[in-house]
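In practice, a research group might receive sequence data for several interacting partners and want a quick structural hypothesis before committing to experiments. The following worked case mirrors that situation: the sequences arrive first, and a predicted assembly follows.
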Amino acid sequence: MNDTLIIDTLKSTIEVATNSKETITINYWFWIAVVEFIIITLYFTHNKKKKLLSKKELFIKNAKESEVDFGNIINSSFNVKPLYDELKTKCHPDRFPNDKIKNKIALELFQDISKNKTNYKKLMEIKEIAINKLNINF
Amino acid sequence: MFENTWNRILDWFSDRTERAKLIRSFNSSAKKSFISGEAPTLLNASISKGDRAYRHQFSNWLKTGFRIQAFSGRELSKTEIKQIGEVILNDDVLVRKMIVLGWDTLEIHGDKGMFGLKWQLKDYMALPK
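A structural hypothesis for the assembly, expressed as tokens:
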């Protein structure tokens, strides 16, 4: 009698234990999924932030890495105006109305002159081109 | 978080050095040009208070002005000051560098007279949002 009772209780305890184990495993997997979800969302938000920052960071990086030609800037501050005026008049496309090739070159040079009107170094380069290609005597 | 703070501290120190280096390079080039006779006037750059109305996203807390003084011994005309300003502002590399290093105002004046001009740097460069 006692043996059967013990066996029954043992059986019932084993059943309870297995049931509780199942519930525990379900909870366990649920929490793993929650943690995974949090990690994935954090990863994506972090990446998104990184992408947003990258434009700004790139701007800063480019600015810091570039070299400034102060010699040219200071030279341009005082000497660019007369050079620009000279080039503007001597390289004007209207000075070459009959020669189509020279007129085209003069037009391109004139556009470059207007674009670089405060850059002494660039204007000197344009002057060299004008001497060689348009045969202008400065 | 600690890494971010540490990086910010390092960036702040490196920016201070870069600012000083830029000013020193400008002044030494100006001196060389004046001595060689390329420039008739000696220019001298320094850091000034700046204008708070010209602030942008990279502006420093204090001292946001890039001041250039022209030692010409006479009062400079508006056209002369404008010419120097235009040359500096048309140099994209310099303007970008000045903005990134925390300057937001460019000031130019002579050593005599009370006339000077100032520009806001953000007008001359498209800044990233």
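Before designing any experiment, note the following. Residues 1-66 of chain A form one domain. The mean pLDDT of chain A is 84.
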